[in-house]
Amino acid sequence: xxxxxxxxxxxxxxLLAIVFTxxxxxxxxxxxxxxxxxxxxxxxxxxxxGTTFLDIAPAQIxxxxxxxxxxxxxxxxxxxxxxFATAGLGALAGLxxxxxxxxxxxITRSGSLxxxxxxxxxxxxxxxxxPIFLSQVGTTFSDxxxxxxxxxxxxx
Length: 156
Prior knowledge:
By secondary structure, this protein is mostly helical. The chain is built from eight helices and no strands. Helix 1 runs antiparallel to helix 4 and helix 4 crosses helix 5 (about 115-130). The protein starts with a helix and ends with a helix. The model is unreliable at about 150-155 (pLDDT under 50).
């Protein structure tokens, strides 16, 4: 019974964090940063259409950055309205809370389940309230997405 409640509580924390980042992104407004206008959108477009090497450095040095991490943002921006794309990018940023929750639960294996949940909740709150993280929620900056890629290795 206690394990089931533990799972429900940790799932609730993760979902609440994703809702928080989604709402925060919507309240921050639609992303229109210089990098998005200069190369975040263009790099993926050029890669998918085979035109990456037709022009000579159209996005200056950023023309040679790997656009793979920007593909989800490109698809959202191309397919959805600006507000839905912003909400989607905010929700993706919220997945960091899931990673932090699992990491904090993994390193606090001793102690009561309630204590572990409080420590994990504190870690999630600290992580989601950082000024750099909050400045990138709902934007096309890939820093908040690149943190999630090692999650599979950590959980295994």
